[in-house]
Design brief:
This protein has 443 residues and is an alpha/beta fold. The chain folds into two domains: 245 residues, Rossmann fold (3-Layer(aba) Sandwich); 158 residues, NAD(P)-binding Rossmann-like Domain (Rossmann fold), CATH 3.40.50.720. Helix content is 44%, strand content 16%. The protein contains 19 helices and 16 strands. The strands form two sheets. It has an eight-stranded parallel β-sheet, sandwiched between helices. It has an eight-stranded mixed β-sheet with strand order 10-9-8-11-12-15-14-13. Helix 1 crosses helix 4, helix 2 packs parallel to helix 3 and helix 5 crosses helix 7. The protein is globular. It binds nicotinamide-adenine-dinucleotide and adenine. The site of nicotinamide-adenine-dinucleotide has 27 residues, from helix 8, helix 10 and helix 11.
Length: 443
């Protein structure tokens, strides 16, 4: 292993002395995550993860810290690396290191450091993996297939052994849409080495985290970075899926004229019927003041769009990867690039126009703000914890496939959240239950 600045066997963080601030920040999250608090008490009694090592590749935030503590309370030995080079909250990473978690993450990692950190987390020898975007799972698969691209060479720099014990991994979970797509692609090619639960696709996740969490925090990221007035602006949202629909709604709520760009006819129709203008990016490019991509796709905004944009256009991405806004294209028409505020790069184009890129085109809500609010991560991470428990208890009968979160877990997590709000559920009478199951009763 090549030792880089600050990398030890136990942790790799920016500055461990930031731990006190991190502890305080984690405490604020913990107070807003009642479902995880309930699970923690249960896990302390039942110890479902005793003897299990977990390697997690997640955004290292205060909410992730709460999840790590809950898993440890259930007996898990947890190692954590970042799932994005710019999303780590350094004080939180420091606090986790002081609490004895193996944490390999700091804000501003290079690609080499990012993948070396994944290698460190893999050296933990996981029985289960937790991923957000599938960089950990795909690294495992590339290693075990003897592939040798640049990312693998960096992962190897973090490994204690040449090859981690992949055969010991009994299962994993995936947090986000892009990660699920990548793991499904592995499954389709018959390459998936162990079962992975698609936490992203659970209803208690995708109905809340994607639209409400990203919807609010992406706008929060744009506002923290620029402090622009949204009212009266034209906001172009690329992608009207789970995330994009939430962003569009929040932008509308702030007084923007919202334009939606969407290739899927059903989703485009849904956007149109909800009162949004719907058009191609080619047309939207010249109209937008603020552009936010949320597609999971590549080259959504590219050179032919940049050349049509208004002077002063602001670009941000909320999708998992930094490929939605083509940064190379933007660079190619820029005379000069300068940082004009924290997280704001000004591209001065050859023709004199200015384009602002936020957070280097990476997840604007995590880079320019603090990611999803704790209340919504309470749901997503409760699903993560319960899905890991499900794997721990059922792995012998799980196929090497992408598996949905069991409906029972989805419902339990939603019910626990409602309980925390003091909301009572309607109970069906036996007559009502029979009626819903019968075919005989008619008009
Ligand atoms: P989704 O599949 O529900 O929606 C994506 C939409 O983008 C689809 O409607 C698709 O038709 C559309 N699309 C594809 N190519 C396009 C293009 N070139 N132009 C315009 N639209 C296009 O996915 P989702 O759950 O909304 O997730 C979107 C992205 O956001 C993924 O990368 C996901 O991993 C990420 N995500 C980020 C956060 C965050 O915290 N920032 C949270 C959840 C998900
Ligand atoms: N993804 C989006 N927001 C997040 C948060 N606050 N913590 C961890 N992962 C996230």
């Amino acid at each position: 292993m090549i030792l880089t600045d600050g990398l030890t066997a136990a942790f790799w963080v920016k500055d461990v002395s930031m731990d006190e601030d991190g502890m305080k920040r984690i405490a604020t999250a913990e107070a807003m995550m009642p479902v995880l608090a309930t699970l923690r008490k249960k896990y302390e009694r039942e110890r479902p993860f005793d003897g299990f090592r977990l390697s997690a590749c997640l955004h290292v935030t205060k909410e992730t810290a709460v999840l790590c503590r809950v898993l440890r309370a259930g007996g898990a030995d947890v190692a954590l690396c970042a799932s994005n080079p710019l999303s780590t909250q350094d004080d939180v990473a420091a606090a986790l290191a002081v609490e004895g978690f193996k944490v390999y993450a700091f804000r501003g990692m290079t690609a080499q450091q990012y993948y070396t950190a994944i290698g460190r987390a893999l050296s933990h020898g996981p029985d289960m993996t937790v991923d957000d975007g599938a960089d950990l799972v795909t690294s495992i698969h590339k290693l075990s297939r003897g592939m040798s691209d640049e990312s693998v060479s960096y992962v190897k720099q973090g490994l204690d052994e040449i090859m981690p014990q992949v055969s010991k991994i009994i299962g994993g979970t995936e947090e986000t849409t892009t990660g699920v797509l990548r793991i499904r692609a592995l499954e389709k090619e018959g390459l998936l080495l162990y079962p992975v639960i698609a936490v992203n696709d659970a209803l208690s996740k995708s109905l809340f985290d994607n639209p409400l969490g990203t919807g609010q925090s992406a706008l929060d990221g744009v506002l923290r970075a620029t402090n622009v007035l949204v009212a009266g602006k034209t906001v172009v949202v690329a992608g009207f899926g789970r995330v994009g629909s939430g962003i569009a709604e929040r932008a509308k709520g702030l007084g923007a004229r919202v334009v939606v760009v969407e290739p899927d006819p059903v989703k485009a129709l849904q956007a149109y019927m909800n009162g949004y203008m719907v058009m191609s990016m080619e047309r939207a490019a010249g109209l937008g003041d603020i552009f936010i991509t949320a597609t999971g796709n590549i080259d959504v905004i590219r050179i032919e769009h940049f050349i049509k944009m208004k002077d002063g256009a602001i670009l941000a991405n909320a999708g998992h990867m930094d490929v939605e806004i083509n940064k190379q294209d933007l660079q190619s028409i820029a005379e000069k690039v300068e940082t004009v505020r924290e997280n704001v790069a000004l591209y001065r184009l050859h023709d004199g126009r200015k384009i602002f890129l936020l957070g280097d085109g990476r997840l604007v809500n995590l880079v320019c703000a603090e990611g999803h609010p704790s209340e919504v991560m309470d749901l997503s991470f409760a699903l993560q914890a319960e899905s890991l428990r499900y794997i721990a208890e059922n792995h012998q009968r799980l196929e090497k496939k992408v598996i949905p979160v069991p409906a029972e877990i989805d419902r339990t997590v939603a019910a626990l959240k409602l309980q925390s709000f003091g909301v009572e559920l309607e109970k069906l009478t036996p007559k009502q239950m029979d009626y819903l199951k019968s075919w005989a009763a008619g008009t």
